[in-house]
Structure formats: structure tokens, C-alpha cells
Amino acid sequence: MLGRVDYHAPSAGSSAGWGGLGWLWQWLLGFAALLLLGAAAIAPSAWWSTRVADTLRRRFAGSLLAGLVSVLVVPLLSALLAATVIGIPLAIVVFACYVGVLLLSGVFVSLRIGAWVMQRGGRPGASRYARLAVGALLLSLLAALPWIGWLAWLLVPLLGMGALLLERRDAWRGDSAPAAA
Predict the structure, then answer these.
(1) Which of 45, 141, 158, 181 registers the highest number of CB atoms within 10 A of its CB?
(2) 4, 6, 7, 80, 158 from 1: Cα distances, Å
(3) Which residues have a Cβ under 8 Å from the Cβ of 159 and sit 6 or more positions away?
């Protein structure tokens, strides 16, 4: 018939809803992605990622504030640069760096969470890969939770980006020494 729409809800056994299996799959994919990105990010430097995670521990409120400002200002700056013909290439580079730092923010927060858990568990000298694995496991689990996962999706980029920016500022000024690996 013309002009009529029939809706048929998927049955409980169909693959469209996936139910609890879909949640598990989402969590496992998030964990694997964060773990792989983290391993690739911390491999080149024995101290840099640890230093950013330590900045997050020492300056939590400052990291949150710096992250909030940067999350709001950088896209605006990119849009303003893109409004000019000469600024378009620079806008692309700035926005690409912004996206890269947003992706890395989860790694730094995972390292901090993992370090906290390992210290509480009596293993403060655990390797950064072990800290990353534990932190990524917990962070991905928190982000996959149905009613509070949005809070992790909101706070992690703010905290991670802010800690990275504060660490880079301190390193540029020469204010801090490398943290222990």
C-alpha cells in the first residue's frame, strides 16, 4: 500500500539487538583499541608517558581546567584559520594534532589509573605496560557502562589533554625532570 509504514520489532534472538553480547563486544573492542594505541604511544619513550600521567596525579584540577579550555579553543581556532585561504593548511595541521592528542588522552588517563591500582595492590614498581593494561581494562569497562559511561567519555579527554599540555609547558620551561620509567 502506498503511504503506509509497517514496523516489525526484531525478535529477542535476532542479531540486531545483540543484548549483553553487544555490550561485551563494545567493551572488548574499546579495551583492545586503547591497549594497542597505548602500547604504540609509550614504546618510543621510557619516561614521557609516565611524566604526563604523573602530571595528571600532581595537578588534577589544573589538568581538568587546561583540558576544558583546549577542547573549546582549539576547534574554534581551527575554524578561524580555515576561514582564511592562507590559514587552511595550518587549520588542517592544528586540527589533526588536536585529534591525535584527543586519542592519546585515554592512554595517559589509563596509565594514571593503572599506576594507582598497582600502587594500591602493592606493586608500585610494575612496568608501564602492566600499568597501561590494568588502566585500559578499567577505563574501557567504565566507559562501556550504560548509565555512567558518558562521564568517562566526557572527563577522559579533558584530563588527558590537559595533563599533556601542562607537561609540555613544564618541559618547555625546563620546570621538571624526567619521571622514572
Answers:
(1) 158
(2) 6, 10, 14, 51, 52
(3) 56, 60, 63, 64, 67, 105, 108, 109
For residue 98, what is its C-alpha cell?
588536536
HEC sequence for the chain: CCCCCCCCCCCCCCCCCCHHHHHHHHHHHHHHHHHHHHHHHHCCCCCHHHHHHHHHHHCHHHHHHHHHHHHHHHHHHHHHHHCCCCCHHHHHHHHHHHHHHHHHHHHHHHHHHHHHHHHHCCCCCCCHHHHHHHHHHHHHHHHHCCCCHHHHHHHHHHHHHHHHHHHHHHHHHCCCCCCCC
Per-residue pLDDT, averaged over 21-43, amounts to: 87
The predicted model gives 88-93 an average pLDDT of 93
Provide the whole-model pTM.
0.79
Taking only the tens place, the pLDDT of each residue in 103-126 is 999 999 999 999 999 999 888 888
47 alpha carbon, distance to own chain's centre: 19
Asked whether residue 69 carries a pLDDT value surpassing 80, the answer given is yes
- How far is it, in rounded angstroms, from Cα 38 to Cα 61? 23
